[in-house]
Amino acid sequence: MSTAPIWKKTATPEELNARSGDTAHGHLGLRFTEIGPDYLRATMPVDHRHVQPWRVLHGGISTVISETLGSTASFLAVPEGFRVVGIEINANHFAAVPEGETVTAECRPFHTGRTTQVWQTEIRRANGRLACVSRLTCAVLPE
Q1: What global pTM score does this model have?
Q2: CATH class belonging to 13-142
């Protein structure tokens, strides 16, 4: 596997967080923490905004995390003059995340083609246990 960066656009976690202000994931407290050579990382505290009535992370919120990281990664991985749109997402949930914990999410590419991209996000509990794996497919379109 190549260790060359895959990004066609430059950004910092701070810049990505600044764009998140009045958005769904901004309201949820999702914060980008790292942009690696072929991955994005983010964290989010699990509080009253994120839980089911049983006080564990709602699966729909896991999907929001995955869609956010995958869409952002896809946007950064296409050249100027192109945009991306999500066309399919799936998620498998493995472990409940109780209210009060912080989750860490890491997104990596499966496929970065000219017309489609597929990104996988792993969401982990504070102890490192895998809570959710999700895949997002994006279409790459000219602007």
Answers
A1: 0.93
A2: alpha beta
